[in-house]
Amino acid sequence: MSAKSQILVIDDEADIRELLSLTLARMGLDAHCAASTVEAYALLAKNNYDLCLTDMRLPDGDGLTVVDHVVKHHPNLPVAVITAHGSTENAVAALKAGAFDYLAKPVSLEQLRTLVRSALRLPSPAQRRTQEEEASAQSRESPLIGESGPMQAVRAMIGRLARTQAPTHISGESGSGKELAARLIHVQGSRGDGPFVPVNCGAIPENLMESEFFGYKKGAFTGAATDRDGFFQAANGGTLFLDEVAELPLLMQVKLLRAIQEKKVRKVGSTGEESVDVRIISATHRNLGEEVKHGKFRQDLYYRLNVIELRMPALRELREDIARLAEAILRRQTAANGAKTPRLSAAALELLEGYDFPGNVRELENVLERALALTTGGEIRAEELQITPTRVAPVAAPGALSGRPLPEKLDAVERQAILDALEQTRYNRTAAAKLLGITFRALRYRMERLGINDELDSKG
C-alpha cells in the first residue's frame, strides 16, 4: 500500500463515513466519500480508485446497484459491500454479482483493515498470467491447457473468482483438475502470497477431525505433548481447500459451519477462541445438492460453501484439447530425467481422442506414463497406450439381466464396473477407486460385499 492509494466510501450516514475515513487515513490511505449513488458515480467518472466500499442501503439505490455499475464500467476495481447484521442473503447476492467481499454491521475495524489490505494486494492481469504459469508448474496436476469453449470458460471463471473472496465450490468428476483450479484461484487472487492448504476430507479418521482442523492444546488428550495448530491456523491469511468435502461426517459439518460463520476456531482443550482469516474453497466429485436432499450434507453448510460454483468439464468434453494436453504431459514426464519427448503417432492420437477417459486427466497421465515406459523409439504407437476404444459395457448386452430382481441387476452392474476398473489399472485398487470416483474405503467395502475379493484370490 502507498499514500497514493485512494478508496471510495459510499454511505448515507455521516458518522459511518467519518469512521471509515479516519480508519483508512490511519492506514495511510486517501478516502473520498459519497452519500448517494449519484455522487459515487460522479466520483468514479473523475478519479481512479483502488477499492470501493459501499453500504447496502442507499437513498437512491442499493449496494447491488453499485456492484453492478462497478463490474460493468470499472472491471478492475474491487468493490466490497457493508450489509446489515445477519443479512446473509444480501451478502451472498453481492458476492454472486461480483463483489470482492462484504462486511457486516456493526463494522469491525480489524476486519475492515484486513479486507482493505487484501483488496489492495490484488494482482494486475499481467501478474495473474505469471502466477498461473507458476501455479501450473508447482502443481502435481496437468495445466489447464486448451482452446475449446469449455476450457476457455473455465479459465475466464477462475479469473473472476480470483478477484473475490466468495466461498467457492468446485464440482467435477475425479481427475478433472479440481485442486489445480483451486490453486489457480488462490495464486491469482489477493491471497496469492499466503498459504494454500489442501485437505482431503475423506482421508482423515473421524475421531481426529476436530483436532486436525482446529488444532489442540497440550494435554488435551493422550499423546498431545505440545500445542499444535490445525488446518485453519495453517491457512491463516490464505486459502483452505477442502477436497472431497462431502465425506465430512455431520457432526464435523456443524463445527465447520460455525468456524466459517464466526471466523474463529477453538482448539481442542482450549477455553478461548482465536480469529482466523481464511478463504474456503471446497470440491467434491459428488452432487452436493443431492447429498443435501438425502440428509447426508447440511443445507446451511451447503449454502455457505456453494456461494459460487465452478464446474470442471470432463475430459471427454474436451476432445479437441487432448492433443495439446497430451503433448504438455509428455514434456513434463520426460523433463525429470532429461529424456527427449516422444511424439504420438497419428493412430495413437486418434485412439486417445476417441476414448472417454472415465478417470479424466489423471487417467490420461497414467496412460501416457505407462506408454513412455513401453516405447523404445521417438514415437508412441497406439498399442503402447494399452487402451481400447470406448465401448458399451458388457452388462448392457440385450437380455443379459432380464428376469432378475432389481437388486441383483444393480449388483451385477456395480460388480462389472469394479472389475473393469481393476483390469484397467492392473489391479491397483487405489487407482481403481480414483477411476470409479469413490474412496478407497468405499471400494474395499463394495468388493467385500460383492465377493470380488474371493474371486480374485481363487484366480491367484
Give the topology.
Elements: E1 6-10, H1 14-26, E2 30-34, H2 37-46, E3 51-55, E4 57-58, E5 61-62, H3 63-73, E6 79-83, H4 88-97, E7 101-104, H5 109-120, H6 125-138, H7 149-162, E8 168-171, H8 178-187, E9 196-200, H9 209-214, H10 231-234, E10 239-243, H11 250-262, E11 264-265, E12 274-275, E13 279-284, H12 288-293, H13 299-305, E14 308-311, H14 322-335, E15 343-344, H15 346-353, H16 360-374, E16 379-380, H17 406-424, H18 429-436, H19 440-449, H20 452-458
Parallel strand pairs: 1-2, 1-3, 3-6, 6-7, 8-13, 8-14, 9-10, 10-13, 15-16
Antiparallel strand pairs: 4-5, 11-12
Describe this structure in words.
By secondary structure, the protein is an alpha/beta fold. α7 (149-162) packs across α8 (178-187) and α18 (429-436) packs across α19. Helix content is 46%, strand content 13%. The strands form five sheets. The protein has a five-stranded parallel β-sheet with strand order 2-1-3-6-7, sandwiched between helices. It has a five-stranded parallel β-sheet with strand order 9-10-13-8-14. β4 and β5 form a beta hairpin. The protein is globular, with a radius of gyration of 26 Å. Residues 391-398 have low confidence and may be disordered.
